[in-house]
Amino acid sequence: MKYGMMLAIALLAGHAAVAQIAGTRVPGGCDVPVSKRSAETGCYLLATESLESLPAGEVFWHLYAYPTRAAAEAARKDASGTVVESLGKIWLFALAGSSWRPMAGERVAVIGPLPVEAAKMYTARYMEAVFLPNKAMQTAVHQHSGPEAWYVVSGAQCLRTPDDVLVIRAGKGGFVRQGPSMLLTSIGTETRRAVLLVLHDASQPWMTVTSDWTPTAQCPES
C-alpha cells in the first residue's frame, strides 16, 4: 500500500484532543485563541474565567446576545459574566441561578442545572467548535473534570458515553456530567457550529484523552 494517502479526521468539539492518527494536531486544539485560528473548522478558545465560588443553589449557564460589544459590556457591568465574540454573535455568558437576567440583551438559552461538584476554585472555560457535517469530524475519546455544556448554533451533534447517546440540534442546548468517557460526532447535512463550556475544578486538567472505552452505540444520520 502506497504511503502518504492515509486520511483520518478527528476534530474536537470543545476538547483539546489529539486526532485519530497518532501525532496529528487538531486545528486549534481548544487551546489556541479564536483570534489566532488556523482553519475554518476546529475548536478554539474564547475565554477562561477563574471563580473562587459559584452561586448558591443550582447553577445554570446563561447565554445572551447583543448588537455590539459595547452593549454587551454595559450589560456586564450590572452582572457577572464574560463577553465574547463567536460565530457571528456578541455574547454575554454568565453562571447564575435559573431566574437570573441581565439588565438588557436577547436571551438565547439557559442551560442546566449543571451538576458541579465542590472544589476550592473553579475555571469556566468557554470555547467554540466548527465541524464538517455528515459524521466527517469527531473528537478523540476523552473525559472532563467538570460538566460540559453546549449550545448548538447550526447543524447537529451526537455525544456518546458508556450510558447514553445525546443528540443536540440547532437552537438547543445540553450538558453532560463530569467523569464518563465520551466521544462527540457531527451529524446531519449542515456544518455543526457550537459554543461550549467546561466548568471544572481549577486544580484538575479540564480534559484528558483516554483509551479505556470504545463506543458501541450508533449515532443517527441526522
Summary tags:
single chain, about 220 residues, mainly beta, Jelly Rolls, 5-stranded antiparallel beta sheet, 4-stranded antiparallel beta sheet, 14 strands, about 40% strand, globular, disordered N terminus
What does this molecule look like?
With 222 residues, this protein is mostly beta strands. The chain has one domain: Jelly Rolls, CATH 2.60.120.10. The protein is built from one helix and 14 strands. It has a five-stranded antiparallel β-sheet with strand order 1-6-13-8-11, with no helix packed on it. Strands 3-4-2-5 form a four-stranded antiparallel β-sheet, with helices on one face. The longest helix is centred in the first third of the chain and has 9 residues, at 69-77. It is globular, with a radius of gyration of 17 Å. 42% of the residues are buried. Residues 1-26 have low confidence and may be disordered.
